[in-house]
Amino acid sequence: MPWPTIVAASFAYLLLLFAIAWWADRRADGGRSVIASPYVYALSLAVYCTTWTFYGSVGRAASLGIGFLPIYLGPTLLMLLGPLVLRKILRIAKAQRITSIADFIASRYGRSQGLGGLVALTAVIGVTPYIALQLKAVAVSFDVLWGTDPSGATGGLSLPVVLDNAFYVAVVMAAFAIMFGTRHIDAAEHHEGMVAAIAFESVVKLVAFLAVGAAVVWGLHDGPTELFATAAEHPEIRDLFTSAPALADGSWLTMTLLSMAAVLCLPRQFQVTVIENVDERHLTRALWLFPLYMLLINLFVLPVAVAGLMRFPDRAVDPDMFVVALPLAAGEDWLALLAFIGGLSAATGMIVVEAIALSTMVCNDIVMPLLLRARSARLERLHDLSPLLLTIRRAAIVAILLLGYLYFRIAGSAYALSAIGLISFTAVAQFAPALIGGVYWAGATRRGALAGLSAGILTWAYTLLLPSFARSGWLPASFIDQGPWGVALLRPYALFGLDGMDPLTHALFWSMLLNIGLYAVVSLLDRPGLGERAQATAFVEVFQHRDTPCRRARGAAPPRSATCSASSRASSARSGRRRPSPSMSAATGRWSPTAGPGRSWCASPNACSPGPSAPRRRGWRSPPRSRAARSATPS
């Protein structure tokens, strides 16, 4: 297909997304929200289905048969637990006015800036391969559709950077995320235009995949019966109809657990599930609509994989590209173009939401705490930091997408699409112990969460991330085969002599053993402070607390919400402090006399509670009291 046609169709589709997002934002400004619907909310959750689903599931099915299913069984199982887990997390997030998963974990453990920064940094590093996955999928599918690489064997790396379509896709995605994710600072961090566009994209990629699947089953063949009967005549394909390939490597349980954790811990999933939720009641309908969506989009995965193996014997075409290559082979160029647009939709939704979620975390939990600790006089003279916050977030979006593109150029050719995604899944799964444990275990402490998360992410980097660079030639191959410095016990795929596992299961075993072990042991030996205990109570017993109206001091910026969290009231009552310390709200970008631990950055409007040793900022005066109040104060 001529490349001008592909580029024109792609830009037309992206302009349509811009129009939908702009329309939704205009309606929101007029008080008529588009996303205040359980159906839109459920469709936004389908951002979980990325190019991994659209392309990678077919490639995995071509090798493992039903081995692609665990990636979707995990989220389905989590939806079954939704009334117990997700509803509680939603309630906590609304009460605490959470802005990201880093903010959630940091708020639970005494609003620890160090823990929040560690979560944000881990998320950026861990999700970088996943962004690279999307760029690779778009680049390869473009080359297959254009005809420059009909087999998809070069992995999208056949062109220099200036001619690489993946680079320009990253640029366009950055522009979209900046335009509709960082237009203004919102207390609730809701992005109505983005959510509306993501819901529309979910419909497009579902329709595109179903159209390709139906054309393969009833167009290229005479229905599923004839397709599978013909495939059964090939012994190597017939094995895919059994459970043997899927269970051979022992990763079925591993992938189920990883996907179950990822659907909650991926920054983009936490963003759309928790942060963008406008009504807790929408969760009830999403608990069955989201699994139904995943069932529909995977309905033709195995038929497309089987048909591709028969049409392209000896894997003449990369199985990941069967969705595009099969319509092309049948002469249906328009269907191949529709499949490409569906894959572009899957990539766009993931990249945009992920970039917005990560940029918020980088701004609130890494950059601003460092700037405020520097005690810049120029920063203190600013009464409104909103322009600075927006600039930081926009720069973070560009940097994050650049990192994803660099990983794609460095290590993108060494793995299939699904393998790249599993590297990121294992990284974000390290948040699960601190997240779930903090919601149900009041005895969990900040030091325990720091110790567990640090050990888990270092183990992940050693057993999965560094080997990906070694397999790409950027590290010596002996690092994998012999271990660093020739120490066999330190081989990343057989750490401490534990051999016989597939690399994914091996990495998950060691990382979670150290993560959960240190998290539990250190928490049991630790004695948390007063503020940390108050936050633990507020999180664990969120259903036992009812919010009461906030009272603000004279001269303070008005809060965006009319309620204070139970933990803020409990912490304030126990502290005994009369003079508040100033803090900065990430939601409003303004200095306010909200009580906080000294001169610290508050990741959400109610995120700073006074500690017993919090210093008072020089030059700050408490609001004047009335004469009656002064006379009533005991001397």
Overview of this structure, please?
The longest helix is centred in the middle third of the chain and has 41 residues, at 333-373. The chain has 28 helices and five strands. The protein has helices at 3-29, 38-45, 51-64, 70-80, 86-96, 101-108, 113-146, 165-181, 192-220, 224-231, 235-238, 244-248, 252-265, 267-275, 282-297, 301-311, 322-329, 333-373, 377-381, 386-411, 417-428, 432-440, 446-471, 478-481, 503-525, 530-540, 566-575, 627-632, and strands at residues 548-549, 563-564, 583-585, 591-592, 601-602. The protein has a three-stranded mixed β-sheet. It has a two-stranded antiparallel sheet with strand order 1-2. Mean pLDDT is 81; it is low at 547-635. It has 635 residues and is mostly helical. Helix 8 (165-181) packs antiparallel against helix 20.
Secondary structural class: mainly alpha
Largest sheet geometry:
3 strands, mixed
Helix content class: 55-70%
* Average pLDDT, all residues: 81
Write the layout of secondary structure elements.
Blueprint: H1 3-29, H2 38-45, H3 51-64, H4 70-80, H5 86-96, H6 101-108, H7 113-146, H8 165-181, H9 192-220, H10 224-231, H11 235-238, H12 244-248, H13 252-265, H14 267-275, H15 282-297, H16 301-311, H17 322-329, H18 333-373, H19 377-381, H20 386-411, H21 417-428, H22 432-440, H23 446-471, H24 478-481, H25 503-525, H26 530-540, E1 548-549, E2 563-564, H27 566-575, E3 583-585, E4 591-592, E5 601-602, H28 627-632
Parallel strand pairs: 3-5
Antiparallel strand pairs: 1-2, 3-4
Helix pairs in contact: 1-9, 2-9, 2-15, 3-16, 3-18, 4-13, 4-15, 6-7, 7-8, 7-18, 7-20, 7-21, 7-23, 8-18, 8-20, 9-16, 9-17, 9-18, 10-16, 13-14, 13-21, 14-18, 16-17, 17-18, 18-20, 23-25, 26-27
